[in-house]
Design brief:
There is one protein chain. By secondary structure, the protein is mainly α. The protein has 2 domains: about 25-70 and about 120-315 and about 335-420, no CATH class; about 425-540, no CATH class. Helix content is about 55%, strand content about 5%. It has helices at about 15-25, 55-65, 75-85, 90-100, 105-115, 120-145, 150-160, 165-170, 175-195, 200-215, 220-230, 240-265, 280-290, 295-310, 340-360, 375-390, 395-420, 425-440, 455-460, 460-465, 475-480, 490-495; strands spanning about 445, 450, 465-470, 485, 500-505, 520-525, 530-540. A hairpin with a 3-residue loop joins strand 6 (about 520-525) and strand 7 (about 530-540). The termini are far apart.
Length: about 550
C-alpha cells in the first residue's frame, strides 16, 4: 500500500518466488490453504470431495476384514502364536529368550486379548483386521495430503480390495500390525517434512522403533524414506531437515538394538529359507498386486499412470517446481514437488524387496510375507492413478466414471481370490473335528515326532480331550513353542496303560517306532485326501 492508500501492483518474477519458497518451507501439501498470496483466487478445478468420503476406504477395509475372519482354520505359524499367548507373562518372557524374540512385541500386544476373550480364530485375528483398517486410514490420509481427496479415496478403496491385505488381516501374525506401523511412520515423515519441528520427528522415531520391534526387516523402509526426502525436501531447508532425520533414525536404530541382537542369536529360526529364484520375483509381483494375472496388469497400469501423470489437488491447482504466486504457491509454504505420492510410494514399493532379495544371494533371508508392509505403496500409486483420471483433459465426469470403472474391474478380477481367502479348508481343524466325533473315553494320542505341536491349544475340542502320552512338559514350562517329548522307555510304559492310541503322522515319518509291542493298526482314514489319521488298538 502507498501513502495515498492506493494498492501498488504486485510484480513477482519466477526467480524471486523460487527463492522465497525455498527459504520458507520444504513442502507444500495440497488440500489446505488455497490462497495464492496475490489476491487472485485459485484456478477453478475439480469439485472438492466431502470429508466423509475419506472414511470410505478404512470403513470398507474393516468390513472386508470382518467378513469371514474366522472361516479358515489356524495354520502352523498361527498355532505358534496361540502357543505363545496361552502361557503366563513370565513364561512368555522365557520363551522369547529361546525363540521368536523378533515377534515379542506382537505376542505381548496379543497376550491380554487372548486372556480376556480366548484364543478362537475370530478373536486372535481381530487385532490384525483392525490394524489393516488403520493402515487404510493412513493410506487415505497420506494420499489426500500429498495429492487430493480423490487420490485418498482411490487409495483407500484400492487398499481395501487387495487380496493380500485380506490374507494378512485374517492372520494372527504380526504382518498386518507391521503394515500399519509402516504407514504411520510414512505419514509422520510427511508431517515432519511439512513442519520440521522435533515433535513430528520424535513421533516418527517412535513409529520407526515400533516397525523394528514388529519385524526387523521392516526397517528396510529407511532407505526408501531417504529417497523420499531427496524428492520432497527442496531448497535451503533441506540440510536441517535431513540432519534431523538422520538423528531420528539413529535414535530409532539404537532403540531396536536389543531385538536385533536377539534376532541374530536366534537366526537359526530362518535357516530353512532357500535362496530366491525368478519364481520368487513373480510371486512377489502377484502378492503385491493381486490374485490373478489380469488384476496384476490392471493394478500395474494404474500404478504407472499414478507415477507418470500429475494428480490435480482439490482446487484445480497443479503445483510443481518453480511455481510462482498465482500458479500454485501458498504463503509460508513451498510448492509440492510434482508426483509427490510417487516420491513416497515408489521407493517404498521397490527398495525393501530389492534389498532383501539382493542380500539373499549371500545369505537367504527373503520370504514373501516379510515385505507385505509394502502393500500400502501399491494402493498409494494406484490411488494416484485413479485420481489422475480426473484431469481437465479427461473431463470431470468422464474421469470419475473411468476411475470408478477401473476400480470395479479390479474388484471383479480379485473376487475369486477374496472368496478363496475365506474357504474353510482342512488342516488340523478338520482332524480335530474328526477326533471329537470318533474318540472314546480313555483314548490317548501319540505324536510320532521329537516335539509336540500345540494343536491341543489351537484346537482344544478334538485334541485336548485325548490323553497326551508323548508330552514331557507343557510348552510354557519348557520355554518353547513346541512341547518336548518323553524318552522312548517312558512312552512305552505310558502306552501300556491304554487300549486305543490315535496318531496324526507327518508326511514321510513312520509311526511304528513310537508304539509299544502289542498294538496293531485298527483303522486308517485319509481326510479329504489331505491328512491321515491312524487308530491303533492293543491286541488280546
Amino acid at each position: 500500500m502507498t501513502r495515498t492508500g492506493r494498492r501498488t501492483p504486485a510484480v513477482v518474477t519466477e526467480e524471486t518466488n523460487v527463492t522465497s519458497v525455498t527459504n520458507q518451507a520444504p513442502l507444500y501439501l495440497p488440500g489446505r490453504a488455497r490462497s495464492t498470496g496475490v489476491g487472485a483466487p485459485a484456478a477453478a478445478g475439480p469439485r472438492r470431495l466431502p470429508g466423509w468420503t475419506l472414511l470410505a476406504g478404512p470403513v470398507l477395509t474393516l468390513a472386508v476384514m470382518l467378513w469371514g475372519l474366522g472361516a479358515r482354520p489356524y495354520w502352523g505359524d498361527e498355532a505358534d502364536t496361540i502357543s505363545a499367548v496361552s502361557r503366563t507373562l513370565p513364561q512368555l518372557w522365557r520363551l522369547l529368550g529361546h525363540i521368536d524374540a523378533v515377534h515379542g512385541l506382537y505376542y505381548l500386544l496379543l497376550w491380554p486379548v487372548a486372556r480376556i476373550a480366548g484364543t478362537g480364530e475370530f478373536v486372535t485375528r481381530l487385532p490384525s483386521a483392525v490394524a489393516m483398517a488403520a493402515a487404510a486410514a493412513g493410506v487415505t490420509a497420506i494420499a489426500a495430503r500429498l495429492g487430493s481427496r480423490r487420490a485418498g479415496l482411490g487409495a483407500g478403496l484400492m487398499f481395501a480390495i487387495l487380496p493380500t491385505v485380506t490374507a494378512q488381516g485374517h492372520d494372527a501374525r504380526p504382518y498386518a500390525a507391521l503394515a500399519a506401523a509402516a504407514v504411520l511412520a510414512s505419514y509422520l515423515l510427511v508431517r515432519a517434512v511439512e513442519d520440521p519441528g522435533w515433535r513430528w520427528f520424535a513421533a516418527y522415531g517412535l513409529a520407526l522403533a515400533g516397525v523394528g520391534y514388529l519385524q526387523l526387516f521392516g526397517l528396510l523402509l529407511l532407505p526408501a524414506h531417504a529417497v523420499t526426502l531427496i524428492g520432497l525436501v527442496r531448497g535451503r531447508r533441506a540440510v536441517p531437515v535431513l540432519r534431523r532425520w538422520l538423528v531420528t533414525v539413529a535414535a530409532a536404530v539404537v532403540a531396536v538394538v536389543p531385538v536385533a541382537i536377539a534376532g541374530w542369536v536366534q537366526r537359526a529360526q530362518i535357516a530353512w529359507i532357500p535362496k530366491p529364484g525368478w519364481s520368487d520375483v513373480t510371486s512377489l509381483i502377484a502378492m503385491l498386486a493381486a490374485g490373478s494375472t489380469w488384476a496384476a496388469i490392471v493394478i500395474g497400469l494404474l500404478c504407472a499412470f499414478g507415477v507418470l501423470r500429475r494428480v490435480v489437488p482439490d482446487g484445480g491447482v497443479v503445483p510443481g517446481r518453480g511455481a510462482v504466486p498465482g500458479r500454485g504457491a501458498v504463503p509460508g509454504r513451498g510448492a509440492v514437488p510434482e508426483r509427490a505420492i510417487a516420491w513416497l510410494a515408489l521407493p517404498w514399493l521397490v527398495l525393501p524387496p530389492l534389498i532383501l532379495l539382493a542380500a539373499s544371494v549371500i545369505k537367504p533371508v527373503y520370504f514373501t510375507r516379510y515385505v507385505t508392509y509394502c502393500l500400502p505403496a501399491v494402493a498409494l500409486l494406484a490411488g494416484a492413478g485413479l485420481a489422475a483420471m480426473g484431469r481437465r483433459g479427461w473431463g470431470r465426469r468422464a474421469g470419475a466414471a473411468g476411475a470408478a470403472a477401473a476400480l470395479a474391474l479390479v474388484a471383479a478380477l480379485v473376487w475369486p481370490a477374496q472368496l478363496a481367502a475365506r474357504a474353510p479348508g482342512g488342516g488340523m481343524k478338520m482332524v480335530a473335528q474328526f477326533l471329537a466325533v470318533h474318540e472314546r473315553p480313555g483314548d490317548a494320542i501319540v505324536y510320532p515326532q521329537p516335539s509336540i505341536p500345540p494343536w491341543y491349544l489351537a484346537f482344544p475340542d478334538g485334541f485336548a480331550q485325548l490323553r497326551d502320552l508323548s508330552m514331557a512338559q507343557t510348552p510354557g514350562a519348557a520355554g518353547r513353542l513346541f512341547a518336548p517329548a518323553v524318552a522312548r522307555p517312558v512312552l512305552d510304559r505310558r502306552e501300556q496303560s491304554v487300549r486305543r492310541i490315535w496318531m496324526v503322522p507327518e508326511a514321510g515319518r513312520s509311526p511304528a517306532g513310537y508304539l509299544a509291542p502289542g498294538f496293531r493298526l485298527a483303522h486308517e482314514w485319509n481326510l479329504r485326501g489331505y491328512q491321515t489319521v491312524l487308530l491303533y488298538t492293543k491286541t488280546g
